[in-house]
Specification:
This protein has 205 residues and is of the alpha/beta class. The protein contains 9 helices and 11 strands. It binds phosphoribosyl ATP and magnesium ion.
């Protein structure tokens, strides 16, 4: 049996066609049901659809053998206990540092609003810049506007959200796309099964 953890939301929408092309199909009746463990067209493959931030946790602990999740989430989690085996090239965006103007970044004790607290800390440490990280769970773009922070670390795709809130990206922190990750122990014990699916997915990317 193979259990695959999929990230809900925008990644799921782009993941299902990739799995479908690889031959793994999840019926709409399964996807629209309230069940948490979904059947696929293969008796030995089950799918769970969970919050993106939970995917590396499930895979790390072996509750799922494989997972599909954004690189942003992996950077923040630390990716301990899992192998990142494939870049799926979907849900692409960039992790950026943004502010209303460049002078804001010169603040002595820079206040940074983000949900990526570990990644942001690492970034500013590497720059030898002291900062205070303010953890938010959403609407990061609002923080500088209301004076909660001097800048934000957040995902940018088209840049429209930044622009609409009077913010400009000033530094690129990481390129983001969704990755296929595998539990290290499962990769040994279920190697053939896992490799078969990875190859099928990769061939159809
Ligand atoms: O809501 P919840 O916190 O549970 O989940 P979520 O919002 O993290 O899920 P969802 O469905 O939004 O998917 C998030 C994942 O998609 C991220 O972990 C990334 O890997 C990936 N992804 C790709 C993005 C974007 N592009 C993206 N543009 N996630 C979020 N955004 C947001 C961004 O935070 C910003 O608010 O879109 C806005 C910017 O878009 P532009 O086009 O205006 O620049
Ligand atoms: Mg969202």
């Amino acid at each position: 049996m193979l259990t695959i953890a999929l990230s809900k939301g925008r990644i799921l929408k782009q993941t299902l066609p990739l799995l479908d092309k690889a031959g793994l199909k999840i019926a709409d009746t399964e996807l629209n049901s309230r069940k948490l463990i979904l059947n696929s067209n293969f008796d030995d493959v089950k799918v769970i659809v969970i919050r993106a931030t939970d995917v590396p946790v499930f895979v790390q602990h072996g509750a799922a053998d494989m997972g599909i999740v954004g690189k942003d989430v992996l950077l923040e989690h630390g990716a301990e206990g899992l192998f990142e085996l494939l870049d799926l090239g979907i849900a692409k965006c960039q992790l950026m540092l943004a502010a209303s103007n460049k002078n804001k970044l010169k603040q002595h004790n820079l206040k940074v609003a983000t949900k990526y607290i570990n990644t942001a800390k690492r970034y500013f440490e590497a720059q030898s810049k002291s900062c205070e990280i303010i953890k938010l769970y959403g609407a990061m773009e609002l923080a500088p506007v209301v004076g909660l922070a001097h800048c934000i670390v957040d995902l940018v795709e088209t840049g429209n959200t930044l622009k609409a809130n009077g913010l400009t990206p000033f530094a690129h922190i990481a390129d983001i796309s969704s990755r296929l990750v595998v539990n290290i122990a499962a990769f040994k014990t279920k190697n053939v099964h896992i490799k078969t699916w990875i190859q099928a997915i990769e061939k159809n990317l």
